[in-house]
Amino acid sequence: MKLAVIGCGYVGLVSGSCLAEAGHEVIATDNDPARIAALQAGKIPIYEPHLDIVLDSVVREGRLRFTPDAAEAVRESDVIFICVGTPPTESGDADLSAIDHVARMIAKESRTSKLVIEKSTVPAQTGEHLKRALEIYATTPGVKFRVASNPEFLREGTAVEDFFHPDRIVIGVEEKESEQQLRELYRPILEGQFRCPVHQPNCPPVATPDFVVTTIASAELIKHASNSFLGLKISYANVLADLCERLGGNVEEVTRAVGLDPRIGGKFLKAGLGFGGFCLPKDIQAFIKLAEGAGVDFGLLKEAELVNKQRVGRLLEKVKKALWVMKGKQIGVLGIAFKPNTDDIRLAPAIEVIRRLLAEGAEVRATDPEAMERARAVFPNLRYSKDPYEVARGADALLVLTEWEQFRRLDWKRIRKEMARPLVIDGRNMLRPAEMRELGFEYMSFGRPDPSAVTAGQ
Ligand code: UDX
Q1: Cβ(340) – ligand 1 distance below 6 Å
Q2: In this structure, are 285 and 317 located in the same domain?
């Protein structure tokens, strides 16, 4: 099939590359000419494992190309994926101006009928507006537009794998023809033709995904409902962690046993600094707003959002209790990205932690395997180092803010020797309290009471 992908951000790049790998002819465009020029020169603007391999091969084989000319992309395709950003406005609603702009552009430039698919996360009823805009602004007589919703559930860090091996593919359609077209488009993935995105040996066999066909409004709701529920689960685990600290339980034991009930499930119950990134916080906020606009008070989500916002404060309480005075203290930070295997720092809890440490007069030195360049744009004067041991050198405290596997595998004995005071505050419950204690650390984490740490402020 001939596909156009409008918007070469995270979703557009991953979807466009993977759809090309699935055998389609893809032309991708973006309103940022510099981004397109970089992509044409083979530079990928985001860090996403395996994306380079897939992108290289589809570009080399001529199945994916980039153009700054959106009209060209529209005219040369039968199916158009809208993958533009829908950032939150001041009030927390999703800003749909980019979708509106693209809809008018598609209507104006199309010379043949198209299937137009919303892939960006949008509030319910956007499909209706999209359809109306396409009809109103169409310029070529006889051209018809069908609209569909096809939300993405890609996690940063595993997006390529998620694309080829999704749990479900959700499509919201109005016509049988659109359903058939989308079924055909995703056929290679539905048939499980991709063992592994990078075709490594020893990949476990994958289950074929469910193909869920719904109305457009339901598909739009499914995306917000999924991400909001994930946030709800994390905040639930975080309140449990606070409770464990007061009552002497261990949140890992509790969530593990609770999660063994298949009705609950064990994933997304990891307590710590809370959720960040550009999806969960933004989608919860937009869902609350959407409900509000529809006259429904989603108090449950408001509470989950509030709990999440308080996590940074909870970590800093521990730091302050242990360090007493923050001014002039040297604090090492391990991890800036909102989660491992990404360079994304948008709404990363670590950013807020660093901001507040600096405001209190602490001297911060930070490291992250991928996110330091992006962090430099936010904190140009912070001291950065590629070397975690250097970050630990002379530090009064070391904070673990992203659970990169590289950090788990550090020589912690050596870290201890480097530090001025062997105090580790683990915002991601990444390390084992008993092992850290044995190595001579004062160690604190979330919801895992540790007899030796009690005096240090847990
Ligand atoms: C999310 C959804 O998972 C994905 O399906 C959707 O399409 C896009 O949004 P992503 O933003 O990549 O993906 O991050 P995710 O893996 O969901 O993690 C979000 C945040 O929650 C991270 O900051 C992570 O550290 C935190 N988290 C996750 C926890 O604090 N505890 C957990 O148990 C799980």
Answers
A1: no
A2: no
pLDDT at 52: 95
323, part of any domain: yes
CA 431/CA 410 separation, integer angstroms: 11
Asked if residue 106 and residue 12 are part of one domain, the reply reads: yes
Name the residue at shortest CA distance from atom 24 of ligand 1. 275
The mean predicted confidence, pLDDT, of the chain is 94
SS3 407: helix
Q: Whole domain around residue 15: which residue ranges?
A: 2-214
CB 240 within 8 A of CB 447: yes
For position 194, what pLDDT does the model report? 78
Residue 1 CB neighbours (<10 A)? 15
Question: What ranges in 248-331 are assigned the alpha helix state H?
Answer: 251-259, 280-293, 299-309, 311-323
* Residues with Cβ within 8 Å of residue 240, at least 6 apart in sequence: 251, 254, 255, 271, 447
Q: Give the pLDDT of residue 318.
A: 97
Q: Write out the DSSP string of 84-119.
A: ----B-TTS-B--HHHHHHHHHHHHH-SS-EEEEE-
- CA of residue 149 to ligand 1 center, whole Å: 22
Stretches where the chain sits below pLDDT 70 are 195-205, 450-458
